[in-house]
């Protein structure tokens, strides 16, 4: 297979030495020697930032590693870690790696069968857990499934666990204390283990997204992670003066990619917010230099802006609208590598002062040099909004199996409908049905104890089957269509995907999720033609939809009550009709239903990273999909309601089906601005 595109290193991004020839514990030792008193990470507790230097970081890693050694942890073993982002998460990870072991991260929202699947698949006898909530899950798992083999649960937030007496429980600091004593009895032993580490050793095991089946366990080596860090820095230089706020679970490859690999390769300071509710204020205090977030976070930021502006007075709205239009013109030029004229520059300075900078400050994005989004497509309109307010947002493309990133936008070449060009040392080609194929030093080692799946994912020549369809545009930038199995052919012969249409619909501030289906009805006996219309299951964004309802003086009680309102149906119909206007006639949504509930990861309808499990939705809501295809006016489904006493009651839920084929946008309706939820 021949490469059709390969990038070169940017001169300014040259790295002195290669971190990819080392392990992450070896990098930590080096940072502790050369930057011993510099802040490695900081955590906010009780409103105060608590810093940890590189030397203190290394010492805690050594103490915990000695503690694990005292518990018999061997080279090649896998430690599971379950919880939110905290310094202890990274300490446990680096400690395990120091012994030649590795970690598998588990999302803190995981429950039941998810925990059982990951822990049993990884054969993890030791689990590091955050707090009482996670400990309770694990104790239930051990009681219900003793065959999983969990021997120790080490917790790092003791609040609420003071009275627990289960013998398998151990506090994190106790392991560190035992490690100090064990280390004193075995001087030099840990240095030998760290020195014996190889870049080819497995460093972390990340679960795949699991949109179509149970997640697989992808083994990533130190070389995989650190070569990715070096090659990303060739496109976007990173230094030890940079700051990064860790917002996403370490179980996700995206956070391992930037917070861990880039953090250790370049000595970046990592900050941990106090709580989810304080993230925005904590980000304003830190002022990160770069960040990474999936589309749902950027969409929620835009939603917040829309709600705030809609609640402001007419003067502020008009002033922001003027400033946004000016900044949008400047951003359009800059993303094409062009420079604005002197007059437009002057206007933009004023627009920045009165309109766009205050928005960036509210979102905590003022100091950003660049930021990334990935994991799913981001709508072009959302992309354009952030560039218009002065945020250098870039799309990345990759997957767990290639350490999270293979393609990224370059400065001054950001095209909102593409994902950019390959990073250094990454090759791209196309297989059958336009499948994207990738090859680089960051291609994973394989799926843990699953040789068959590994051989299906990687060719003998080292090419990774991504399972995505795409192509290179005239500028050599990659356009991702969708998963191969979801790519369809429009009546005019062009390729399209459900995800493309879903993203168009989700640009509406009122739509949280949209799942589009093709109505492959049987051929008509009269015409011999089969129906190929599109229909959609929609869930509302409760924040913006609720704010709209309040503004319209529309009373409601619950989400289900709001979703059933005729006025809300008319609102969503207008939004979908507006999106349809930008689509060719053959791929417009003709019918939709507003679901009575939001999609929930606990119901397996979406993954922990907010990707829709289309097969689960198709199976669970089959009667709804059938009613949409059969042009029925309504459908009744059964929903199970669990009360506080544990009793479960089946309730019939009638859902209205709205037909857009006879709907027209009201005469005189104004087009809604991207930054507003109202016309």
UniProtKB/TrEMBL annotation:
Pfam families: AMP-binding. It comes from the Bacteria. GO terms for molecular function: long-chain fatty acid-CoA ligase activity. GO terms for cellular component: membrane. InterPro entries: AMP-binding_CS (IPR020845), AMP-dep_synth/lig_dom (IPR000873), ANL_N_sf (IPR042099). Gene3D superfamilies: N-terminal domain of ligase-like. Residues 35-448 form the AMP-dependent synthetase/ligase domain. Keywords: Fatty acid metabolism, Ligase, Lipid metabolism. Belongs to the ATP-dependent AMP-binding enzyme family. This is Acyl-CoA synthetase. It comes from Garicola koreensis.
């Amino acid at each position: 297979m021949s490469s059709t595109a390969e990038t070169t290193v940017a001169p300014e991004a040259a790295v002195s030495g290669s971190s990819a020839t080392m392990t992450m514990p070896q990098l930590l030792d080096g940072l502790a020697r050369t930057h011993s008193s510099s802040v490695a990470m900081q955590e906010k507790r009780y409103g105060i930032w608590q810093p940890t230097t590189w030397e203190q970081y290394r010492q805690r890693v050594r103490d915990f590693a000695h503690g694990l050694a005292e518990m018999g942890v061997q080279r090649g073993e896998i430690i599971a870690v379950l919880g939110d982002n905290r310094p202890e998460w990274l300490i446990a990870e680096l400690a395990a790696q120091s012994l030649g072991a590795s970690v598998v991260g588990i999302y803190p929202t995981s429950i039941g069968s998810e925990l059982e699947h990951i822990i049993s698949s990884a054969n993890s006898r030791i689990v590091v857990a955050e707090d009482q909530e996670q400990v309770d899950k694990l104790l239930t798992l051990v009681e219900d499934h003793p065959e999983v083999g969990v021997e120790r649960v080490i917790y790092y937030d003791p609040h609420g666990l003071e009275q627990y007496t289960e013998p398998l429980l151990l506090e994190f600091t106790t392991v560190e204390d035992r490690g100090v004593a064990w280390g004193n009895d075995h001087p030099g032993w840990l240095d030998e283990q760290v020195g014996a580490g190889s870049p080819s050793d497995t460093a972390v095991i990340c679960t795949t997204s699991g949109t179509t089946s149970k997640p697989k366990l992808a083994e990533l080596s130190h070389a995989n992670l650190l070569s990715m860090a070096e090659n990303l820095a060739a496109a976007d230089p990173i230094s030890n003066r940079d700051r990064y706020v860790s917002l996403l679970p370490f179980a996700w490859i995206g956070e391992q990619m930037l917070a861990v690999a880039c953090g250790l390769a370049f000595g970046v300071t990592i900050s941990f917010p106090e709580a989810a509710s304080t993230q925005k204020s904590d980000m304003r205090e830190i002022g990160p230099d770069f960040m990474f977030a999936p589309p749902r976070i950027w969409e929620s930021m835009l939603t917040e802006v829309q709600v705030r502006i809609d609640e402001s007075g007419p003067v502020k709205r008009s002033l922001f609208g003027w400033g946004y239009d000016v900044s949008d013109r400047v951003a359009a030029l800059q993303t094409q590598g062009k420079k604005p004229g002197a007059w437009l520059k002057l206007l933009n300075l004023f627009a920045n002062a009165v309109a766009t900078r205050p928005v960036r400050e509210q979102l905590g994005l003022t100091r950003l040099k660049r930021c990334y989004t990935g994991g799913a497509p981001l709508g072009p309109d959302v992309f354009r909004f952030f560039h218009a307010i002065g945020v250098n947002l870039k799309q990345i493309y990759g997957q767990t199996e290639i350490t999270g990133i293979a393609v990224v936008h370059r400065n001054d070449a950001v095209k909102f409908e593409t994902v950019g060009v390959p990073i250094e040392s990454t090759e791209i080609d196309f297989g059958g049905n336009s499948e994207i194929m990738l090859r680089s030093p960051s291609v994973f080692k394989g799926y843990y104890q699953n040789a068959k799946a590994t051989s299906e994912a990687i060719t003998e020549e080292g090419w990774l089957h991504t399972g995505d369809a795409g192509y290179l545009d005239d500028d050599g930038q990659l356009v991702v269509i969708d998963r191969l199995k979801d790519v369809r052919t429009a009546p005019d012969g062009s390729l399209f995907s459900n995800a493309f249409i879903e993203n168009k619909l989700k640009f509406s501030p009122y739509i949280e999720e949209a799942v589009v289906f093709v109505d492959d009805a049987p051929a008509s006996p009269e015409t011999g033609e089969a129906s190929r219309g599109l229909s959609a299951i929609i869930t509302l964004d409760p924040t913006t939809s609720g704010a709209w309802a309040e503004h319209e003086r529309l009373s409601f009680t619950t989400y289900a009550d709001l979703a059933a309102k005729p006025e809300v149906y008319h609102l969503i119909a207008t939004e979908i009709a507006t999106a349809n206007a930008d689509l060719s006639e053959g791929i417009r949504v003709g019918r939709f239903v507003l679901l009575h509930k939001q999609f929930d990861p606990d119901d397996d309808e979406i993954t922990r990273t907010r990707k829709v499990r289309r097969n689960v939705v198709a199976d669970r809501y089959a009667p709804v999909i059938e009613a949409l295809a059969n042009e029925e006016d309504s459908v009744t489904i059964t929903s199970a309601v669990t009360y506080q006493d544990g009793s479960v009651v089946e309730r019939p839920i009638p859902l209205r089906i709205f037909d857009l084929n006879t709907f027209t946008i009201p005469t005189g309706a104004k087009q809604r601005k991207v930054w507003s939820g109202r016309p």
